[in-house]
Design brief:
- The protein is an alpha+beta fold.
- It has one domain (3-106): Arc Repressor Mutant, subunit A (Orthogonal Bundle), CATH 1.10.10.10.
- The chain is built from seven helices and three strands, in the order ααβααββααα.
- The chain has helices spanning 3-13, 16-28, 35-42, 46-58, 77-88, 91-94, 100-106, and strands at residues 33-34, 62-67, 70-75.
- A hairpin with a 2-residue loop joins strand 2 and strand 3 (70-75).
- Helix 1 (3-13) packs across helix 5 (77-88) and helix 2 (16-28) packs across helix 4.
- It starts with a helix and ends with a helix.
- InterPro entries: ArsR-like_HTH, HTH_ArsR_DNA-bd_dom, Metal_resp_trans_reg, WH-like_DNA-bd_sf, WH_DNA-bd_sf.
- This is Helix-turn-helix domain protein.
- Residues 1-95 form the HTH arsR-type domain.
Length: 110
Amino acid sequence: MDKSNALLALAALSQSTRLDVFRLLVKAGADGMLAGEIGEALTVKQNTMSANLAVLTQAGLLRNTREGRMVRYFANMDGMRGLLAFLMEDCCGGRPEQCKPLIDEIACNC
């Protein structure tokens, strides 16, 4: 991940509803959730939720699949791993391989 993409991801997560969405989808795991289910769970109107989902998807933190007329969203753990790797790339005196076990542990492979 480069600096520009890291800034997009951090900006996306810096808004309360979007942070709640990401955390909810992490909790949902491999099943993900339909857009309407996410809105209901967080009591957010459809148009507002749609905008927030688009921001998170653009930032690489969510992925989605279409199911007929509905869209199912999932936390993109590869995107989160990329963000964490970017934030920690110079850790341990410039030896990021020492931090890899930590990144792998906190960013599950869902």
